[in-house]
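Technical appendix A lists one of the benchmark inputs used to test multi-chain prediction within the project. The record comprises two sequence entries:
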Amino acid sequence: MKIRDQFRFVRQNMKKNRTRVFMTILATAMGCAFLIVLASVGFGLQKSVVKEMLEQSIVTQIDVHGKELKDGGFQPISDKDIPKLEKVKDVKAVTNRFMLQQEGIYSIGNYQAGGETIVTDFPSEVKAGFELSSGRLPKSDNEVVVGYDFPFSLGTKEEVEDLYDHNGHVKKKYRYPEKLLGKNLELTVKQLKNGKQEEKNLELTVVGIGKKPAKEWMQDRKVFISKKIVKEIESFTGTPHGELLGPGEEAPEVSKTNVDIYDEVKIYATNMEAVQGIVDQLKDQHYTTYSVVNELKQVNMVFNIAKAGLIFIGTIAILIASIGIYNTMTMAVTERAPDIGIMKAIGANPKTIKRIFLLESSYIGLIGAVIGTIVSYGISYAVNFAIPFIIKQALGEEPPAGLIFSDIPWILPIICFVICYAVTILSGYRPATRAVKVDVLKAMRREV
Amino acid sequence: MITIKNLSHEFVIGKKGRQTVIPVLKDISIEVDKGEIVTIIGRSGSGKSTLLNLVSGFIHPKEGEIWMNGVKVSDLNEAGFADFRIDNLGFIFQSFQLIPSMTAFQNVELPLILKGVSEQERKQQTAKMLERVGLQDFQDHYPSELSGGQQQRVSIARALIVNPPIILADEPTGSLDSETEESLLQFIKELNHDYGITFLIITHDEKVAEIGDRMIELKDGRIVEEGVLA
């Protein structure tokens, strides 16, 4: 018997008791929708959390904090470590930064701004993806690159009440009106000397402005200065990296400090898949690291367990629906026993009979799964639409931006279809076996 | 075409421990040649229906052998017999055994569907067969909308649709009036004459039994008389 004819047969049989079949399909659809919607919450929340994590960091980035020593001590990353780190397989770039240990005050004419002052190695920054929105990289020691938002933070030195707008930028009317590229900035650093605060001014030229941060909420007000300038600052402050001294505090001798120690060392892998390998290699060399991939792994593991649990609970709903399929199929076999007897009498193979009944139960299951999937997409959409309003109304606060409460990835309907199909085959198997065992003579009510 | 060798059968009735064995057929041997019509006659309880059920493969014999068209069918399992049946046997039942939810056309087409014949081919063959049995105008009628004679013709058309070399008939005229019975018997003779189909007919009616080339009488599960009819 051709598969097409088997399908036709099944459809004809299903039409014989539409209400019963419809109710069974409805129960299966409800079970499938329950499974998908339930699991979609796990998928949705995972997506939200992972998205949040990825937005705040770069997946190929590995933070190297330092090195664990054999005696249990901890050694920060210094110049000596950088070449070793660069040699690790699949490393694209190693950036190293240290910060000026006081807030530098930058002024130009009647305008000034505070900024995070950083020393970095530009070639490795460029390799890691650092880009300028305008200008060029520094060529001489007194040339600097400023962050994208730095020009917006240069405000008037006069006392005004509402200096900043809602974005945290200095309002246009108080802001430095000209373009900053090529202009000279004055960096003022301070130090307490003999109980008296002294200041030193350094002349710097802005040659480049960094690229706009990828995220709207991020602001980049950094100023990248050269090592030579830092040396000048250190010779004034008498402390490493220009550290400010408190009253009565003695300055450590600069000559004894390690100026080649970095505050921030980041490794950039060639791709996300290489991150774990790099982390493992660094671990072998006793470096302590942090990577969002590691954290993602943990988060994903927790969510995967949660999703498996939700799918399991959803499967129970399909199992309950399968009782309906079993019942429908058992009744179908009982009702159609005379027809089955006739078919067997004229030469229907037992396998064909079994296949027809299994096909019918699968048909019910799969139609239920299709309807359930469509409905669950609708529910998922509605939930995502309504949840922010509900949270706002019930809790009186804004839900987290970009919250996805329910997400149905393509794999979820597939999982549902596989579970549904397996369950319907199981529930249809016994009735199908009963159909095969129908006694021809009894079915045709013939005397023996 | 059909060889039955030393066939014996018994039914066991009752619950375990208190079972009763009822012998139904005892040492039956019959030979039916190709193109022959053999009728088996006997009273109720003589074992004639059991004999047909054994030949049809609806029950498995306890003892003896059954050969049909060169195949030892008594050794076949259910699936094997099903395959043999669809290619070699046609059935005519007393109560027609048509599927009530199918039209006359669909009932006749069913064996071809089970055989896996293409849709176009089976539509042609079914239409031709219905024409042959004179029911071309009733093809869309359900069995309940047909007379007894018409239903039996549909049943015959269904038996003939796969061109079987053997047709097994169980009281084929049992539910028909005398006029229809006459025309059906005539039709069986024509089929036998024109296509050389072998018939094994079970009946209690002597008039029906007389259409055969040979008649075998069963009594209490044994052959009591066998003879060639003029």
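Residues 18 and 379 of chain A are 27 Å apart (CA to CA). The first strand of chain A starts at residue 61 and ends at 68. Comparable benchmark entries are summarised in Table A2.
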